[in-house]
Amino acid sequence: MTGPAGDGVDILPAAGIRLVETALPELSRPHRAAMDQAWAESVRANPALFDGPVAALVAVERDGTDGLVLSWARASYRYRALRHVPGSPALSSLFVSVLQPTDDGRVLVGRMAPSTSAPGRWQLPGGTVEPPDPDGELDLAALRAHAARELAEETGSATPADALAPWLTTRGARGSVGVAFTAPPRPARELYDGYAELVRTESARGAEPEFDRVELIGSLSDLDGLEGPVVDYLRPVVRHHRGTGNRAAGHARSVAAERPDHAGA
């Protein structure tokens, strides 16, 4: 298991993942009341938040040399508020992300829209994992399918789930674990055009895309040039991408020069 990659984030294996459903930790009455109060305050600050179902991460364990066992429980978004409740059971987020490269090795990132839970934050396409139906199974194939849906819904890039390859897993300072997949490279213009079409489609039906802007980055300096906060795993992931032979041959040329005017909302 790889150690810290900097920025308080660990890089872990991805291919040998087992997901095991477990019971949600019991909450005392004071902890539940504090959680509900913290959630209510979050909703008042951002009315777009909803208490939908999530697969909460309960524990992470090694499975042999390169494998991981992720124990998860059925919960809802309000359980995230427990991180602000002293002494409460530890529950972390489980999410997927997609590294979508261009032909020249750059990577697509998006800025979260104002109505999302992290407005203005730059990250890879992806999202929190939802629990399966009672007769379904949460496994690596389900994570892959979820990652493909998130990529399409957030960027307009329709990549089949079986074209995504498990790449790596990150664990943040708060314990949140993200399983990252890589997508086949696409031309930069195709990615920008796909996002622009998504914006047009969503706007026509009165909806707001989850990303209000997308960019292509090919280096840590490109990442530093983004305006706004950046999710904790993004710098280690970009560093790892750069260090595994994926060189951005053309990142020095102006992104703005090749991006259509409709690449940002």
Task: Outline the structure in words.
With 265 residues, the protein is an alpha+beta fold. The chain has a single domain (10-263), classed as Nucleoside Triphosphate Pyrophosphohydrolase (Alpha-Beta Complex). Helix content is 26%, strand content 25%. The protein contains six helices and eleven strands. The protein has helices at 29-45, 140-155, 188-204, 220-224, 234-243, 255-258, and strands at 10-12, 17-21, 53-63, 67-76, 94-99, 107-112, 122-123, 126-128, 165-171, 177-182, 211-217. The strands form three sheets. A five-stranded mixed beta sheet has the order 1-9-10-5-8, with helices on one face. It has a three-stranded mixed beta sheet with strand order 2-4-3, with no helix packed on it. A three-stranded antiparallel beta sheet has the order 7-6-11. Strand 3 and strand 4 (67-76) form a beta hairpin. The chain is globular, with a radius of gyration of 19 Å. The relative contact order is 0.18. The model is unreliable at 246-262 (pLDDT under 50).
How far do the termini sit from each other? 40 Å
| Number of structurally distinct domains | 1
The CATH topology turns out to be: Nucleoside Triphosphate Pyrophosphohydrolase
Tell me the name of the CATH class.
Alpha Beta
DSSP helical segment count: 6
Helix-strand topology string:
EEHEEEEEEHEEHEHHH
Shape: globular
Strand-residue proportion: 15-25%
How much helical structure, as a percent, in the residues? 25-40%
Sheet with the most strands? Answer: 5 strands, mixed
Structural class: alpha+beta
What is the average of the pLDDT values?
Answer: 87
Second-tier CATH architecture? Alpha-Beta Complex
- Rg, Cα atoms, Å: 19 Å
CATH superfamily: Nucleoside Triphosphate Pyrophosphohydrolase
Q: State the strand order across the main sheet.
A: 1-9-10-5-8
Low-confidence stretches are 246-262
